[in-house]
Amino acid sequence: MPFWQTAGNATTSSSSSSSSNTNSSSTSSSSLNSTAHHNRAGGDPNQQNYGEPPGGERSPTTVSAATAVSLVAKSLLPTRRRLKLDPASKLYFPYEPGKQVKSAIGIKNICKSHIAFKFQTTAPKSCYMRPPGAILAPGESLFATVFKFVEPPENIIERQLDLKSRVKFKIMSLKVKGEMEYVPELFDDMKDQAAVEQILRVVFLDPESPNPALQKLNRQLAEAEAELENRKKPPEEPAPRPTGEGLVIDEWKERRERYLAQQQVEVGPV
């Protein structure tokens, strides 16, 4: 075959091959564009969709993730206080080794509901509280007394360690429905609703060195004792109701006057 025909055929073949490749590329590109469009429209079941479904609805995965984030954020928020404590975070005791010492704390209900509270301690064998728990009406307050036995130190080092006591107290609170008698089982029955109100740290004071904290402690102890005495008193009986202008009728005198008047009527004028 003459060389010019060979060259022409080669050129024609090359052009055909190039055209075929171009058509194949166009077909492949069209196929990819169609597939991408199909996937964006949600047509491919194997393609995971990370966006929002049609209609603005959230997928179950998105909802569960949002719920989890909400729960975590809620758990990080501080618990709303139900009680106001005075002192707020410490219990002050006079340091008197070998003796039982006392502290006091004011507790006030600052909620609109009745609140039960109770004490807990890390040293139940050497500490106790009076009262150990109670129910406070809205706005009601009381002074609680805390008793602790101070072990005598064996040396100066142990004395210094005692002054940094590791004993702690915890006040739990619980919302209750109306007035009722306090029983410790309340917190067992509704432990899911109980909250840690405050953890109190023990601080010892030198009774030989007067300071404002010791003076305040003595005032609170006096108020706590006065409240205890008032609770021990029997309820006062209501006074007799006055009549007329506020004078109590003397029943014996009234009967005597009626008797004398009756005698005069029976005897008649002389």
UniProtKB/TrEMBL annotation:
Natural source organism: Linum trigynum
Family affiliation: Belongs to the VAMP-associated protein (VAP) (TC 9.B.17) family.
Classification via SUPFAM superfamilies: PapD-like
Higher taxonomy: Eukaryota, Viridiplantae, Streptophyta, Embryophyta, Tracheophyta
Biological processes, Gene Ontology terms: endoplasmic reticulum membrane organization; endoplasmic reticulum-plasma membrane tethering
Biased composition annotated in UniProt, kind: Basic and acidic residues: 228-239
Coiled-coil boundaries: none
Superkingdom assignment: Eukaryota
Comp. bias (Polar residues): 1-10
Skewed-composition ranges (Low complexity): 11-35
One GO location term (cellular component): endoplasmic reticulum membrane
Protein name according to UniProt: MSP domain-containing protein
Disordered: annotated segments: 1-63, 222-248
Pfam families: Motile_Sperm
Domain MSP, first and last residues per copy: 82-205
